[in-house]
């Protein structure tokens, strides 16, 4: 028996070695995935989506080499819930995070200096440890996962931080309030703070009393030493360099162009010359002042575009580009505050940028976002799709891409067939938004129809009932709710089926939970 075992041992060893090599080869054949999420970038802020004032040649080229989605949506019109729904594949009727809950019970969480002194005041409300985020599933398939940028889904010292939620590497802002300056005192690398060579200039700081707003010297306090997006880009390239031998997933959650208006001076100068003199922004809405707010906003987007070009060049230089799927989108529509002049730029295209139409609202300007997908020789260059999709489709798409077994149940539908054209694309029966902030809102899209209810948490205004046909009225100006009770009733049935009472009280809409209000006519 010993002789037989000795005889068989070399063959068993050879078999295991072959199995290991086959597994490695299978792993190497999987594509790299890069998902770039801009912050508060409007649907019309990119050249290929109609932007005429801000120059985005690298994003435009990315689109010309791939596919543009014309009807892609975020899961929510503000930061934290949009990111949660992206990573979990849940729509807001099923989501744990449905709004920007800053977890203020801990103390003065909005005091920037206090957060620097006490890290337990940083970060947002944590998500449950049993949450399933798609990077965790990519890890199971052998992917090395990295995140650079803004997290916003759980505070330091909790189990709800990137490196405990599916990312092997993290660099950036843990807390979205900290991201209200691009020259922070610290960022995070994995679980630890990295202190920067920046002074403590808290958000909300205004110009010195008596300062001349037309004198560039008056703004010197807001131009510090280490610009967070520069550092993030370097860490991102380092992550790719260290992991280029095996498949990687990179989530680049850039804070740009979210306020404050802070950008590299070379780009500001470029747009100052292009736009000419303008009225300074004095920081009325809680963000830093800026002498040239329009130039600064455009500069931030062109700076991001420049870095996307550098990323593409790096991938090509390292022979990674052909085997990398790149997706680019935004977390929600353009903001109305902080000096951002969306109306000047027509940042939402035809959908509107003013308060009530962009960020924070479930009209198209707040939730319809750009989406570009590029994968050399796999996605047809220059293609455009009208497929209706949402951020919560990304999870099933990427899991189908890597042939993941037993894909968890999500609210999304894979749009991989649209990307590759290899089989018929399933379509959504509806898209769903439930947003407890800005007065309380719900929206449901059914084909070309979109039902909206607003003022659901207000006592001073009656709840609205709105219905728009987006194919005929994409600007949502002609409310036809009184003429189509059949669509209203369908939306009511969808809501009854899809809405689950939030576990977090701040995210509940009491008029709905108490059964006092909904659709049917």
Structural account:
The protein is an alpha/beta fold and 521 residues long. The chain is 28% helix and 15% strand. The chain is built from 14 helices and 15 strands. It has helices at residues 2-28, 57-64, 79-88, 112-117, 134-140, 228-242, 265-275, 293-317, 342-345, 364-367, 394-401, 416-420, 485-498, 510-513; strands at 32-38, 67-73, 144-150, 169-173, 186-189, 192-195, 248-253, 324-330, 368-374, 383-385, 389-390, 431-435, 441-446, 449-453, 466-469. The strands form 2 sheets. Strands 1, 2, 3, 4, 5, 6, 7, 8, 9, 10 and 11 form an 11-stranded mixed sheet that branches. Strands 12-13-14-15 form a 4-stranded antiparallel sheet, covered by helices on one side. Strand 12 (431-435) and strand 13 form a beta hairpin. Helix 7 (265-275) packs across helix 8 (293-317). The longest helix has 27 residues, at 2-28. It is globular, with a radius of gyration of 24 Å. 50% of the residues are buried.
